[in-house]
């Protein structure tokens, strides 16, 4: 029964989501890292019922670099919270890695967040007075991981190396630049080898050059490691670093298009004047 | 998350803000140290009283006159005129009695040359030095002949000796005047210091009890009789026999009240010990309040800490911490605070107790129970006062927590 309903919803979604393949089967959904079916989320604000999401159908394939844009109040934040398993939809279904997570309990969601989602925030959200290494290790402490201390250190070090901060492992956040802090946060997001990286306005607190660097890192991780990236941003030029742009308005997806002239951060960085290189 | 991991996370969180951690612990440290020191002081006082009483002789029995009633006015203990020298002589025959000394006292002005001193004039018998194991340093205590003849002889306490003659002058053979009557000094008592009751035992002049009765007060009764039992173990039984004898002699019917009182030193001691126990309990409860305040301090800081660290909690929840993990982290933080604080407090309390004895020469005795109770209480405080903030932290919504400014 549920499958039939999901299939029905999937058919409708296929109409909206231009990039999703024709036909909808269970096997199809498992190919997608993210697959939402008629996602609805309402809030009660006083006596009013605010509809933040009005039935969103969206499929994100593995290895995609999706940019989600939209003005404030468009529902993109709510969408991100549900995709990030921080909130549950009022109705509809959300398949993450082929698994229906829309009806999971709080603790189950915590486990999903721990293993399948890597968060990158606008404000970095690093623990103060804590070394970069310890910050990166943090997700490994939760979710019943049985790693030994030495193994945790090694994995955290590998991730710091992957974001180019191997030599800053013992630095505290206040000893790092904004760009470096965001890279530590990205290393933290990667450490549990998640299915997706969910970046919420990751360049919002950074200057142009550092923004390009961070976007370059995302592009590199996306291309070299095949990590699925979901980028939430209200800046259109930042969105152009992705492979596909989805625009929200009034709780619905209004545009869904592939990026035709994708920006390449590495090239842009090489083109920047040399004297500005000190970060 | 395993227990060890929770502990590690909590310790790291505490280490991140060392100043706050130290200040929070301070409340617990002071509380625990205060409890231990106060109880040590109380217990010390108690055991020193016990030692004093042991020294005074546990085989002492005090027989004192009861109160009398005249026109509805009751005079109070020791004022009845029912206890007589004949009673004393009869008590001498009671089985188990070794020494006894009837006592009757008055206050008087003592004059020697151009110096005078107001003091206690204590009438007693020749056996007093034996009963109290209290020898004379100069001269000798008066003898049986002096008692029999109600002679005007006096033995000075060391304080009176100093006040009237100066410590270097030998007063033996000198004449002093007590209430304008001349007395010959036969000896000086060695210094004995304060009694278990806090009186200066050296500020006294001993004269034969017969002299006080006939020459100073003009009465035919005595106020008390100090008895020593032949063996300490027999004291209570001897006291009972004395009471029975006096009831017979005073013709008191079974149903009526005694006109005298027989108390053993042990009974009096237990009253004192009880008093210090009350004192100890009082001190301990005051110290307990500071322990409680320390606990509330921990709760206070933890609550502030939860607010201050809202974003941290949000982040932890976002990267996969369950509510339970956050609850445990904060709870363990509170428990670590109170236990480490408690341990330092115990060390400080032991040091303080030692210091008080060393510098103020107050007797202290650290009781293991007080240490155990303080430690357990510190742990309970941690759990109790840590739980509310921890639950508050665990109940946070990750989205709201991450947005918190």
Strand order of the largest sheet of chain B: 4-5-10-7-9-8
The major sheet of chain A is characterized as: 6 strands, mixed
Termini Cα gap of chain A: 56 Å
Secondary-structure element order of chain B, N to C: HHEEEHEEHEHEHEEEHEHEHHHHH
Beta-strand percent range of chain A: 15-25%
> What is the level-2 CATH architecture name of chain A?
3-Layer(aba) Sandwich
Query: Strand order within the widest sheet of chain A?
Result: 6-7-8-3-9-10
- Coarse morphology of chain B: elongated
Proportion of residues in β-strands of chain B: 15-25%
**Number of DSSP-assigned strands of chain A:** 10
Explain what the structure shows.
The complex is a heterodimer of chains A (279) and B (405). Chain A is of the alpha/beta class. Chain A has a single domain, classed as 3-Layer(aba) Sandwich (Rossmann fold), CATH 3.40.50. Chain A has helices at 2-16, 26-31, 76-83, 106-116, 132-141, 149-162, 178-190, 208-224, 236-239, 265-271, and strands at residues 32-45, 48-61, 65-69, 91-96, 99-100, 117-120, 196-200, 228-232, 244-249, 252-258. In chain A, the strands form 2 sheets. A 6-stranded mixed beta sheet of chain A has the order 6-7-8-3-9-10, sandwiched between helices. A 4-stranded antiparallel beta sheet of chain A has the order 2-1-4-5, with helices on both faces. The longest helix of chain A is centred in the C-terminal third of the chain and has 17 residues, at 208-224. Mean pLDDT of chain A is 87; it is low at 6-29. Chain B has 405 residues and is of the alpha+beta class. Chain B folds into 2 domains: 3-52 and 271-403, no CATH class; 60-230, no CATH class. In chain B, 56% of the residues lie in helices and 18% in strands. The two termini of chain B are 28 Å apart. The chains are: A alpha/beta (279), B alpha+beta (405). The A-B interface holds A 81, 84, 86-87, 106-107, 110-111, 113-115, 119, 121, 123, 125, 127-130, 134, 138-139, 141-144, 188, 192 and B 1, 5, 8-9, 12, 16-17, 311-312, 314-325, 398-399, 402.
């Amino acid at each position: 029964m549920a499958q039939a309903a999901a299939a029905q919803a999937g058919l409708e979604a296929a109409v909206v989501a231009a990039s999703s393949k024709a036909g909808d089967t269970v096997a199809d959904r498992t190919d997608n890292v993210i697959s939402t079916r008629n996602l609805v989320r309402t809030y009660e604000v006083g006596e009013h019922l605010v509809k933040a999401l009005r039935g969103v159908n969206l499929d994100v394939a593995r290895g995609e670099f999706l940019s989600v844009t939209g003005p404030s109040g468009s529902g993109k934040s709510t969408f991100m919270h549900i995709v990030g398993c921080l909130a549950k939809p009022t109705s509809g279904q959300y398949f993450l890695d082929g698994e229906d997570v829309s009806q999971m309990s709080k603790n189950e969601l915590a486990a999903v967040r721990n293993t399948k989602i890597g968060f990158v925030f606008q404000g970095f959200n690093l623990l103060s007075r804590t070394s970069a290494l310890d910050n990166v290790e943090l997700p490994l402490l939760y979710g019943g991981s049985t790693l030994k201390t030495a193994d945790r250190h090694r994995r955290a070090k590998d991730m710091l190396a992957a974001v180019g901060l191997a030599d800053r492992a013992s630095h505290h956040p206040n000893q790092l630049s904004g760009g470096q802090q965001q890279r530590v946060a990205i290393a933290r997001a990667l450490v549990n080898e998640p299915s997706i990286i969910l970046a919420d306005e990751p360049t919002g607190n950074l200057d142009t050059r550092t923004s390009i660097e961070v976007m370059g890192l995302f592009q590199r991780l996306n291309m070299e490691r095949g990590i699925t990236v979901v980028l939430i941003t209200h800046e259109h030029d930042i969105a152009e670093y992705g492979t596909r742009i989805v625009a929200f308005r009034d709780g619905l997806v209004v545009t869904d298009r592939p990026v035709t002239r994708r920006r390449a951060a590495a090239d842009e960085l090489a083109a920047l004047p040399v004297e500005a290189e000190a970060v | 998350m395993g227990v060890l991991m929770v502990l590690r996370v909590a310790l790291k969180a505490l280490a991140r803000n060392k100043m706050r951690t130290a200040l929070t612990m301070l409340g617990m440290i002071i509380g625990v140290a205060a409890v231990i020191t106060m109880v040590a002081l109380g217990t010390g006082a108690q055991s020193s009283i016990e030692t004093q009483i042991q020294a005074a002789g546990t085989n002492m029995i005090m027989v004192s006159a009861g109160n009398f009633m005249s026109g509805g006015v009751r005079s109070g203990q020791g004022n009845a005129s029912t206890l007589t020298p004949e009673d004393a002589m009869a008590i001498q025959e009671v089985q188990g009695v070794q020494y006894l000394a009837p006592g009757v006292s008055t206050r008087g002005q003592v004059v020697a040359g151009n110096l005078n001193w107001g003091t206690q004039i204590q009438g007693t018998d020749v056996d007093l030095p034996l009963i109290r194991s209290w020898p004379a340093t100069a001269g000798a205590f008066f003898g049986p002949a002096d008692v029999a003849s109600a002679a005007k002889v006096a033995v000075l306490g060391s304080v009176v000796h100093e006040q009237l003659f100066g410590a270097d002058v030998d007063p033996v053979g000198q004449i002093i005047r007590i209430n304008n009557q001349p007395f010959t000094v036969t000896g000086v008592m060695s210094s004995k210091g304060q009694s278990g009751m806090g009186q200066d035992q050296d500020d006294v002049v001993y004269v034969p009890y017969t002299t006080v009765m006939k020459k100073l007060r003009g009465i035919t009764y005595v106020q008390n009789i100090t008895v020593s039992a032949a063996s300490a173990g027999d004291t209570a039984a001897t006291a009972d026999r004395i009471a029975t004898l006096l009831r017979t002699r005073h013709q008191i019917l079974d149903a009526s009240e005694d006109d005298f009182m027989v108390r053993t030193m042990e009974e009096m001691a237990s009253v004192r010990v009880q008093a210090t126990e009350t004192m100890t309990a009082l001190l301990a409860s005051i110290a307990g309040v500071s322990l409680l305040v320390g606990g509330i301090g921990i709760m206070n800081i933890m609550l502030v800490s939860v607010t201050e660290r809202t974003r941290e909690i949000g982040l932890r929840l976002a990267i996969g911490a369950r509510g339970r993990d956050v609850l445990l982290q904060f709870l363990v933080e509170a428990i670590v605070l109170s236990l480490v604080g408690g341990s330092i407090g115990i060390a400080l309390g032991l040091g303080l107790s030692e210091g008080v004895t060393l510098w103020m020469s107050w007797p202290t005795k650290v009781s293991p129970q007080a240490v155990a109770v303080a430690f357990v209480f510190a742990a309970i405080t941690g759990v109790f006062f840590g739980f509310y903030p921890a639950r508050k932290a665990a109940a946070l919504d990750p989205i709201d927590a991450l947005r918190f400014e």
